[in-house]
Amino acid sequence: MSLDIADGELFTLLGPSGCGKTTLLRVIAGFHAPDGGEIHFGRRRVDGLPPYERNIGMVFQNYALWPHMTVRGNVTYGLRLRKLGAAEIGRRLTAGLAKVNLTGLEDRYPGQLSGGQQQRVALARALVLNPDILLLDEPLSNLDAKIRVQVRSEIRTLQQDLGITTVYVTHDQEEALSLSDRVAVMRDGHVQQVATPRTLYERPANRFVADFVGTNNFIPGICKEQTGAAAVVETALGPLRALRVADAPAVPAGERCVLAIRPENIALDAAGVDGIEGRVRLSAYLGSTLRYEIETAPGLVLRVDVRDPSRHEALPPGRAVRLGVPASAALMLRDE
Q1: With helix as H, strand as E and coil as C, how does the chain read?
Q2: pTM
Q3: pLDDT tens column, 67-113
């Protein structure tokens, strides 16, 4: 792989377990030596340097706090190894705890803190070193859902305020989309696509990215014709209009392909040109969304989202419906 991460960017490595995210992060940190290639921080080549000479800050999934040390001891541990003066250590401690909203908790031990507070201690310990690059390895995975969202927001705000270049590892797509300037989606040690969160969601480069980022309906078909970015695909549901993703591999006419359609982009009870007849198989209330599973005549089941369920009366199983698929909603991708 070859990646170029901009100065001050929050860049996320996203992918399933075992795809190589943490391995790559540890190569950047210097914990693993690459078999080949080069790593540069700015103009400085660092792949031959040990971790302590790279000036990185690392935040681990399990916090990696010393249980017998107070917050003060944990945060200043790296500073003491660098043999900084007591006054400088005190100044950095005060500033670091203020940044992560832990002022006043200097004398507590990790066992006396919540999971969110322990993660903030780990973050403060990394930041007080004034690192060139901040590396975070699934830092929120051990937190419950509500605290995870809160700490996620705090990390993003802090990163933007400090302008520090950050590489963030996660398998959580929502985390990646909400935090990142850009995301690299990985699979089996290879980068599938590097793009902004919006581009990843709206214009995935292949079926893997379309399936991993968000929810998609996949309809197999044959590409009948293409005109510029537009295409007509013959499917079991009839001919459907679609868009070709510019950065995705081309699909020649007559070749197999797959259409990716987001549930929120399918209109329920629509009378559009690409109307699809079906019946409600299941409905699930998700709070802000009501998700239907619609079984179509050829046996394909499509997921359809209705926003703001309070304005929509749920349809019972067996109810006949008609679905509309706008041409801009369907993306034609190579069949993998």
Answers
A1: CCCCCCCCCEEEEECCCCCCHHHHHHHHHCCCCCCCCCCEECCEECCCCCHHHCCEEEECCCCCCCCCCCHHHHHCHHHHHCCCCHHHHHHHHHHHHHHCCCCCCCCCCHHHCCHHHHHHHHHHHHHCCCCCEEEEECCCCCCCHHHHHHHHHHHHHHHHHHCCEEEEEECCHHHHHHHCCEEEEEECCEEEEEECHHHHHHCCCCHHHHHHCCCCEEEEEEEEEEECCEEEEEECCEEEEEEECCCCCCCCCCCEEEEEECHHHCEECCCCCCCEEEEEEEEEECCCEEEEEEEECCCCEEEEEEECHHHCCCCCCCCEEEEECCCCCEEEEECC
A2: 0.90
A3: 999 999 999 999 999 999 999 999 999 999 999 989 999 999 999 99
